[in-house]
Write a structure and sequence with these properties.
CATH superfamily of the largest domain: ABC transporter type 1, transmembrane domain
Strand order of the largest sheet: 6-7-8-3-9-10
CATH class of the largest domain: Mainly Alpha
Largest sheet: 6 strands, mixed
Radius of gyration: 35 Å
Structural class: alpha/beta
Distance between the termini: 38 Å
Length: 606
């Protein structure tokens, strides 16, 4: 089971800074172009307060009217440069941010797809969707406006501080003392609010996950009148998220209030100390006004850090959550170290295989059997006996806790997953279809298949019988999870998908469970043709469908209790015969030759 994200310790800031550096590095070319533009933009902004000093002291104070137009032109040029560079920065860095977000989303999606099935068993789909879509969105502030505002504000502040020291060192040092104090508060706030943002996002992801489940199962919700139940669960999650947001807002609002107080205190100091400096003749009125304007270039960015810091805190919290996902080991992580495995024959052997989902609770125990290439293996047993787990091991969705699964004499753990999975076809009990066309859903089994091959597979599975009734034929979009098709129609599409894949190992998990008697009869021939020459594993509760299996394995509590062909197991008068008689309501003492007469009744439907 994957650790709950809520229980993981917070990552070190140094680790997150390294991740942020990596994200920024991906946009280095656009940032290399953006930083000089930003420098020009900030320098242009610094020109305007400087012109004010000359306007007051020289033009107005000394009557130098000849400087008026010069000062006006300089101010106009500086404003134009600032406007043009503002626009260029927004375009360049905005595009850089979107590219970085897209690249990170692709990286996350590709990584998540390669995680083992066990990870998906313990993580809600909505949580993963939030990781890929929302958390990646947060890095916009690392390579976009947030970063530029922070860096640009610091550059402007440094230059402005130099000018302030030149105008009045005494007043400047008093202001800097207040700013240092405020910076210490910001550092504390950043370290406090980052875990709060992470907690808030985790709760939002959990709430999204529950909402996704509720909408996906809307028919069950409506059928059982469970709307009020779902509303209570969602409301509880929403209020938990609200409480988390309130805690975050307290910190952010507190820092915002302090920044406002800082501006007031600094303004009071400038009025009192600056006024006395002017009265004492150590500063001119132009110096004081210019000082005030340059001070705004220092205090403004510092106050703005509250907003920028919130954005960057969210970005770092998103990076932390994404790093947790990217830190999960992919199921094919060891594939590059494994040798290529050519086309397989399909000889499968289970050698004393045991498996546990939860430590100490065995699901399979000491399972040993051989499935020679081209033979069919049927798995029979009550619910919870381990049938689905066994085929999950065949499909390499899980690894044995102990023992080995051998394919053509090679341990499955030593075979590249990509090589092995390309030789497998799967028809699950609940056939999953994507919101694409019938044609695209079938072709998913073999992306290299031609249209003629797809149509041929569809014909074998009798998909054409209902596809031709649609206006768009095979180009009909089936809707989310194939909602526009009946259960039997979806199952036929899934069978056609397996046919076009042309696998060496075929897994049929209740492949005809969603079909009525007529549909089952229509495609049984197609299934027989599909299984011919392939190693097939068949799970069937309807025992009439496995009469011709080369080997039937009867499982109970994770162990094989009987094995053999249909007639052999009937004659054995053991667990298989009891299951068969229970299913068809047949009393054993009614027959002189039970094995033969039960076989004659194998076509009886449930």
């Amino acid at each position: 089971m994957a650790d709950s994200p809520d229980k993981r310790p917070p990552m070190e800031l140094r680790t997150l800074l390294r991740d942020a550096r990596d994200v920024i590095w991906t946009a280095r070319r656009r940032l290399a172009l953006g930083l000089p533009l930003m420098a020009v933009n900030r320098l242009a902004g610094i020109v305007l307060p400087g012109t004010t000093k000359y306007l007051i002291d020289e033009v107005i104070g000394r009557g130098r009217h000849d400087l008026l137009w010069t000062i006006a032109i300089v101010a106009a040029v500086a404003s134009s440069v600032a406007a043009v560079t503002d626009y260029a920065l927004a375009r360049i860095l905005g595009l850089a941010a979107q590219r970085a977000i897209t690249d990170l989303r692709k990286k996350l999606q590709q990584h998540v797809q390669r995680l083992p099935v066990a990870y998906f068993d313990s993580t809600r789909t909505g949580v993963l969707v939030t990781r890929v879509m929302q958390d990646a969105e947060g890095i916009r502030n690392l390579v976009g406006t947030g970063l530029i505002q922070l860096v640009g504000g610091l550059i402007t502040a440094v230059i402005a501080v130099g000018i302030l020291l030149y105008l009045s060192a005494k007043l400047a040092f008093m202001i800097l003392g207040a700013l240092v104090f405020f910076a210490a508060i910001l550092y504390w706030a950043f370290n406090t609010v980052r875990p709060l943002f992470k907690e808030r996002s985790e709760q939002s992801a959990q709430l999204t996950g529950r909402l996704t489940e509720g909408f996906a199962g809307i028919r069950i919700v409506k059928a059982y009148g469970a709307e009020r139940h779902e509303a209570r669960i969602f409301a509880a999650g929403a209020h938990k998220l609200l409480r988390s947001m309130i805690r975050t807002m307290r910190v952010v609002s507190g820092v915002g209030a302090l920044s406002t107080l800082l501006v007031g205190v600094v303004g009071m100091v400038v009025m009192v100390v600056g006024g006395r400096e002017v009265l004492a003749g150590r500063m001119t009125i132009g110096d004081l006004i210019s000082f005030t304007l340059y001070l705004a270039l220092v205090v403004g960015p510092v106050a703005q850090v509250v907003s920028i810091g919130t954005q960057l805190s969210e970005a770092f919290a998103g990076l932390e959550r994404m790093r947790e996902v990217l830190g999960e080991q992919r199921e094919d992580a060891a594939d590059p170290r494994k040798r290529a495995f050519g086309p397989i024959r399909g000889d499968v052997v289970f050698d004393d295989v045991s498996f546990e989902y939860t430590t100490g609770t065995p699901v399979l125990s000491g399972v040993t059997f051989a499935a020679p290439a081209g033979t069919s293996i049927a798995l029979v047993g009550p619910s919870g006996s381990g049938k689905s787990t066994l085929i999950s091991l065949v499909a390499a969705f899980h690894r044995p806790t102990s023992g080995r699964v051998l394919v053509d004499g090679v341990n499955l753990a030593d075979i590249r997953l990509s090589d092995y999975r390309s030789e497998i076809g799967l028809v699950p009990q609940d056939s999953f279809l994507f919101a694409e066309t019938i044609y695209e859903n079938i072709k998913l089994g073999n992306p290299r298949a031609t249209r003629e091959e797809v149509v041929a597979a569809a014909h074998i599975a009798h998909v054409d019988e209902f596809a031709d009734r649609f206006e768009d034929k095979y180009d009909t979009i089936v809707g989310e999870r194939g909602v526009k098709l009946s259960g039997g129609q979806k199952q036929r599409v899934a069978i056609a998908r397996a046919i076009v894949a042309d696998p060496r190992i075929l897994i049929l998990d209740e492949a005809t469970s969603s079909l009525d008697s007529e549909s089952e009869a229509l495609i049984q021939d197609g299934l027989n043709r599909l299984m011919r020459g392939r190693t097939s594993f068949v799970i069937a509760h309807r025992l009439s469908t496995i009469r011709n299996a080369d080997q039937i394995l009867v499982l109970e509590e994770g162990r094989i209790v009987e094995r053999g062909r249909h007639d052999e197991l009937i004659a054995l008068e053991g667990r298989y015969r009891a299951l068969y008689e229970k299913q068809y309501g047949i009393a054993a003492n009614r027959f002189v030759n039970p094995g033969e007469e039960l076989a004659d009744l194998a076509d009886v439907k449930e």
